[in-house]
Amino acid sequence: MLPSHQLIYYWLSYTKSIAHDLSELSLPLDSPLFRRGQALLPVPRLTKWLGPNSETLVSPHERLKPPPGNGSVYIIQGRYTYKHYLQDNTDDKNWGCAYRSLQTLISWLMWQGEVRGQRLPSIIDIQTSLTRTGDKPKSFIGSRQWIGSLETSSKFNELVPTHEKFQQLVTGLQHDLDYGVLEDLNQMLGHFAAKDIILDEFERDSEYVLEYIWEKLHSGHWKNVHDCWRIAYALVRVLRGLYILTYESAFITSSHVSLKSALKEFDYSLLLGYPILDAVATRLASATHELIEDIPSEPSNNKRPKHDNSADIPFVTLDAFDVDDRPICPLKRIDRPSLEKFLQLMAHGKPFILTGAIDFWPACLPSSDRRWSVESWRRRAGNRTVPIEIGSRYTDEMWGQELMTLNEFIDRYVDISAQVEKEENQQLGYLAQHQLFLQIPELGEDVFTPDYCLVTGKPECNEATVDSNVWFGPIGTVSPLHHDSDRANLLAQVRGYKYVILYTADQTSALYPHTDQMLCNTSQVDAEHPDLVKFPDFTQAKGFHGVLGPCEMLYIPPRCWHYIRALSTSFSVNFWWDVSQDFIPSWSMSH
């Protein structure tokens, strides 16, 4: 009860229609429930009734009288912040109803501790979110257009598979997975459909089944693992990511933390799982990353150091490389050969550099906003998780792999000022031989498969199966001397420079391949700094060398040994394809 000097006096006169409405809402005619907390501006003395970071009442239904008669009352569990017209200094009469309902629903999740957002979304936030998803045009932001219940749930409907599709996927695994895992997956699907447990509980329960599947994935050689375990792993990761997005309302509350957590789940699904449900993880990951970039980040005192500009260093000549009088000659450079000319060059079985063939790629064009650079990759894929090779070269004992975001990789290994601060024994990091375009297809749109990959030497073959990998790393990364077996290879240098040394298959006897079966395609010799006492015949190996620059490609014939070292921060893409047996040379020794 307010003190007498703060009492508010009023005189009421109701029309018949208003009196009817008050009766329908069970509001008494003699003392309607006016509350100062529902005003446009907050009332400090009434903060005990206010919602989190809000001006409005909490759970006002608790103060309503039950309706007379034999009617039924349905009460929700948990508290909520009551949002309605004219709040937040916004005049939304006659069009803001659904916005306010959506705000109220989200507040219920926040009060239960199931959403970690810092504030309720404003009407502008909701309109911006619907614009990002393509549901509304940009002119919708700031307008007085109303929305309905379909818009409030449309953010994922086009991307998220139906419950039936999820269930069909699990049913298809029933003859391959352990019964206990099937039970866990079905239980997860039930919780996902009902949203009947909090996020922490869903993550905790799914962690158990993830650990079990992880053990299955790493029992024996990776290629021998049954696909059912990869499918199950991918499914669990996708469900975890979607549970975060829907339960945290991340697309509405603009939470970087929840968006990044969901994105990590989708990327793990792609990296360690099997593509499921029409590549749903790929589409979800791309959409989530785009939203992260659209949302203003929290201010930070930690400024990112300047990136490594050495990708733009001037051309390096071969005079800078000492080959100790070894029989190595410069690679020929061919400017944009025709397909017929390329076929003739392939028949010679020797490597060469192609110029002028890819400078039209968006990834290469200086005027394109899709030109590859450290900055553009940060913007377009910085929060994506990728596999990074740690170590100077894969033949080193300390070599390993680690999953991290591209931003973390750039900060730790690529940035030039970060390099200066490293300890002398700090290892190199390299995004190497990764099928990045399958994971992040929008980057794959910046390059094109060269028409030269159609040249197979097989008269009956009009097309070829082409596999591509991406290579991105700082100066000093090395691919030791090795061969790619029986496939032809085009290495496209998008940005930066690389030094290359190559030997054709007939030189194999002087290259000292490893005897270990796992490394039999790799030489024991450091091609740039050979130990000629340990490997004396290497001095007789006849080879080729050259510097591969931006917008150039290196043709590597089948079974051709090649060594590659980055002379700067470097972006490369390689293309492998099968060719006629006529183009595959014999080895010079049993290999």
UniProtKB/TrEMBL annotation:
<dbReference type="Pfam" id="PF24472">
    <property type="entry name" value="ARM_KDM8_N"/>
</dbReference>
<keyword id="KW-0408">Iron</keyword>
<dbReference type="Pfam" id="PF13621">
    <property type="entry name" value="Cupin_8"/>
</dbReference>
<keyword id="KW-0805">Transcription regulation</keyword>
<keyword id="KW-0804">Transcription</keyword>
<dbReference type="InterPro" id="IPR041667">
    <property type="entry name" value="Cupin_8"/>
</dbReference>
<dbReference type="GO" id="GO:0046872">
    <property type="term" value="F:metal ion binding"/>
</dbReference>
<dbReference type="InterPro" id="IPR056520">
    <property type="entry name" value="ARM_KDM8_N"/>
</dbReference>
<dbReference type="GO" id="GO:0005634">
    <property type="term" value="C:nucleus"/>
</dbReference>
<keyword id="KW-0479">Metal-binding</keyword>
<dbReference type="GO" id="GO:0032259">
    <property type="term" value="P:methylation"/>
</dbReference>
<dbReference type="GO" id="GO:0008168">
    <property type="term" value="F:methyltransferase activity"/>
</dbReference>
<keyword id="KW-0539">Nucleus</keyword>
<keyword id="KW-0378">Hydrolase</keyword>
<keyword id="KW-0223">Dioxygenase</keyword>
<keyword id="KW-0560">Oxidoreductase</keyword>
<keyword id="KW-0090">Biological rhythms</keyword>
<keyword id="KW-0131">Cell cycle</keyword>
<dbReference type="GO" id="GO:0016787">
    <property type="term" value="F:hydrolase activity"/>
</dbReference>
<dbReference type="Pfam" id="PF07910">
    <property type="entry name" value="Peptidase_C78"/>
</dbReference>
<dbReference type="GO" id="GO:0048511">
    <property type="term" value="P:rhythmic process"/>
</dbReference>
<dbReference type="GO" id="GO:0051864">
    <property type="term" value="F:histone H3K36 demethylase activity"/>
</dbReference>
<protein>
    <recommendedName>
        <fullName>JmjC domain-containing protein 5</fullName>
    </recommendedName>
</protein>
<feature type="domain" description="JmjC">
    <location>
        <begin position="429"/>
        <end position="591"/>
    </location>
</feature>
<dbReference type="InterPro" id="IPR012462">
    <property type="entry name" value="UFSP1/2_DUB_cat"/>
</dbReference>
<dbReference type="InterPro" id="IPR003347">
    <property type="entry name" value="JmjC_dom"/>
</dbReference>
<keyword id="KW-0156">Chromatin regulator</keyword>
